[in-house]
Amino acid sequence: MDLLALETPCLILDRGKLEKNISNMHKRMKTLGVNLRPHGKTAKNIDVLKMALEDQAGGITVSTLKEAEYYFSHNIIDIVYAVGIAPVKLDRVVALIKKGARIALILDSVEQVKFVAAKGQEYDVEIPVFIELDCDGHRSGVTLDDSLLLDIGNLLHNEEGVILNGVLTHAGESYNCKSVGEIRDMAETERAMAVKCSELLRKNGLPCPIVSVGSTPTANFAEDLTGVTEVRAGVFVFNDLVMAGLGVCDESDLALSVLTSIIGHQKRKRWVITDAGWMALSRDRGTASQKVDQGAGLVCNVEGQPLNDLIVSSTNQEHGIISNRMEKDIDWDSFEIGSMVRILPNHACATGAMYDRYYITDGSTDIIDIWYRINGW
Ligand SMILES: Cc1ncc(COP(=O)(O)O)c(C=O)c1O
Known about the structure:
By secondary structure, the chain is an alpha/beta fold. The protein has 2 domains: 3-10 and 255-372, D-serine dehydratase-like domain (Lyase, Ornithine Decarboxylase, Chain A, domain 1); 34-237, Alanine racemase (TIM Barrel, Alpha-Beta Barrel), CATH 3.20.20.10. The chain is 30% helix and 25% strand. It has an 8-stranded parallel beta sheet. The chain has a 6-stranded antiparallel β-barrel with strand order 10-11-14-13-12-15. Helix 3 (65-73) links the parallel strand 3 and strand 4 (78-81). The model has no long low-confidence stretch (mean pLDDT 97). The structure holds pyridoxal-5'-phosphate. Pyridoxal-5'-phosphate binds next to strand 9.
């Protein structure tokens, strides 16, 4: 089947680019001597995760229990649910553990330790837990100078129903770095903070077998990961315009795009109207604060080659507006009504979340496969 026969909007995944992105990350992790724990929240699809998991027995990260249940149903046992835990989710966690999953939670408060331990005791299971660390003020976690680190560590070590698995941090602020040098520094801050916290726990007689760090930018530019046992990264599998803007990849490395039809011309305004609005592209404007603002996405021809200076400058729910970023006129013959273009997304995770499947290409316009994905919680 050819891409031009697909109903738009739909999601296109270039298999060759996906393989290259994954292989580059595997090489980096081998050079740095750490395990990769790929994050399943980007693809929410088992085919991609199997490629990202070089060693089929390795572990993954998830951001929802739905992902955990889905990947476990595909025989992935070792799972870190890397979003702070709420009590209402614990029955599903226990159900997974009872079925044989090794699912670990993260938390950063004494209250959470108490309700997780109580649930473990109630069901006679030991729930593995990481202490979440805040290495960059991004959102959650405890800091090195906070007595909470040892309070939580001691409680996790001494309570029944829980096991202290180690420490985990995510340098989310790396997305706001202004240069590759800044990302390198951020990677070192992320490493050093996690390692220092693990040393403090051990010095106080507490176990800390796993030291887990990661984000795609820091994973890409870390120079030394001494003391770290694993790196979590997700968006590297697809890459996106935010990653390209940070210098993590080139635009030609973006594996994901949205196929859209041209549905109108507004010639006086120099606008091409498409059927990919924010429902199809997401409202993520991650490049707005970068050197090059890519609007709601960068426009490519149907073969996936970027069309210079054409971006999705605005979106409504089901309409996209393409215009020239220099406000130049449009070559209208290249955008006949009914023809198609592809849009490279700002944020692959957010755009992917709008769809239930990937149409897989091999670099040409042939569809070679369809891979289904999950959404929701
Ligand atoms: C806790 C945690 N770990 C790892 C990641 C992966 O980061 P990235 O998407 O930059 O690869 C994320 C992403 O949000 C995260 O929240």
